[in-house]
Amino acid sequence: MARPMVINCIFAFALVLFGAPSIASAKSIDFDKATIAELNAAFEAGTLTAEKLVELCLERIQAFDRQGPKLHAVISLNPNALEIARALDAERAAKGPRSPLHGIPVVLKDNFDTVDMPTTGGSVLLEGSMAPDDAFMVKKLRESGAIILAKVNLGEFANGSQSSLGGQSLNPHDLTRTPLGSSGGTGVAIAAGYAPLGLGTDTGGSIRSPSTVNGIVGLKPTHGLVSRDGIIPLSLSLDTGGPMTRSVYDAAVSLGVMTGVDPADPATNKSKGKLHKDYTQFLDAGALKGARIGVARDFMGADPDVDWVIESALKAMEKAGATLVEVRYPKWFLDSHSPALFTLYPMEFAVQIGDYLKTTAPQYPKNLDELIERAYEYTSLGADGAGPNPERWTFFLREQSSGQLTDPGYIALRDYFMPMTVSLVEGMFAQNNLDAMVYPTRMNRPAQIAAPPGPALGTGISPRNIANLTGFPDLVVPAGFTTDDLPVGISFLGTAFSEPKILALGYSFEQATRALRRPVNAPALPGGIIEVPE
């Protein structure tokens, strides 16, 4: 990691001697606060290169991930990232950029297959496993000119908030608090400025929970808008990948690159005629004016600080011209939706993880039974945070005994409860003529990492599960901070393939409130300023 620091010193010395490229009017901003649009403006002006941007990202990883606050978000770095960046800079000079993501570093939750880096699911049971090819979303990113910089930590096999391979990631806003999961490593990495863009996956809130508690933007797309091919499955009826970023613009610009019908994922057939390649065209700072926003107060009342932030967010929407409409879910649904989701997905994981493991090399487990057998044999602590993960491995046993996909209970959930949930939510939208429904993404602030275990998974109310049971899109936007300076996010839930609308509304809210700030445990580093044309 010494080389980036040397190069930065040379770069700074050159600027002193020769000056930065001349641009008529420019503003100086911290690169880790810049949007992808601003990074592209700097690329175009010649004040930034992809190589320099990768170096700046690597400096932050070096400073914060295993040193300083020891955030433990990164599982593995791409050793070829700088070489790839230099090649992309040469290509830009010769031919122009491939897309708005040309030269943009990206971090991936380590359940996305990458042909050139291990894909482990955060598990020592898959340590070193190399996939035969890239996941569909990763292929799209590479084709766009994005640079895969790192694979990051997650709740093991996309469940929980820590892993046996990556250990426990820390929330950069408060190191004693959980960054939540399962895309916690991506949430930490984006908040701490390791990269402008990260990918997470979401089965029951796993993009949205880390986004809200790390103070960033996260989008769970409509089920079928992006392909799940090459993602280690948790539950294919519920799973989707999606972007995690520092701005709504960045979520929109990255989403368009990754959409597309994929023969390897039949669910993407649902997106025919409904997907877009450029979602930034829908962003409108005035979108809240005249919008009808449903307020789901069923998910308030658990934490007065969170409620205060949400009430302030609602007032900001009204000030921007939105009409707020109170909506309520039936009590029977509130009592049943979370247990339904946590009954369905263990059944699917037990089968679908075996299908994925068949693609791994011979030395790795080939089904859930073999994962459990290997887990019982793993008792020692490894280097760099690796060690047993009894909480997740115990859940293996629940998945193992959860039942068969031919069971009447599973069929009822998949074929009746999920469509009924779609009908219920669509009916609430239609009855109230809503453009979106909003709610606190997390009803309370994140727990202390050292706190005793909370209620069992699947108990209580979880507003995030509704987007998974319906397959509907849900956008998290930072809304403010609690008394103890913890981020709070607000969710914009839409109906199927309404990403243009919820991105517009979220962007309008973001521009009106700008509730973003750098985490206190990941401060600015010297030399991180870039010049952006005004």
Please tag this protein with its features.
15 helices; 14% strand; alpha/beta; 534 residues; eleven-stranded mixed β-sheet; globular; Amidase signature (AS) enzymes; two-stranded antiparallel sheet; 15 strands
Can you give a write-up of this model?
With 534 residues, the chain is α/β, with parallel strands linked by helices. The protein has a single domain (2-13, 25-533), classed as Amidase signature (AS) enzymes. Helix content is 38%, strand content 14%. It is built from 15 helices and 15 strands. It has helices spanning 2-18, 36-45, 50-64, 81-95, 136-143, 184-191, 208-214, 248-258, 304-319, 331-357, 368-377, 390-400, 408-432, 465-470, 499-513, and strands at 26-30, 74-77, 105-109, 147-152, 162-163, 167-168, 197-202, 217-220, 240-245, 292-296, 323-327, 436-440, 474-481, 487-493, 529-533. The strands form three sheets. The chain has an eleven-stranded mixed beta sheet with strand order 2-4-3-7-9-8-13-14-12-10-11, with helices on both faces. It has a two-stranded antiparallel ribbon with strand order 1-15. Strands 5-6 form a two-stranded antiparallel ribbon. Strand 10, helix 9 and strand 11 (323-327) form a beta-alpha-beta unit. The model is unreliable at 1-20 (pLDDT under 50).
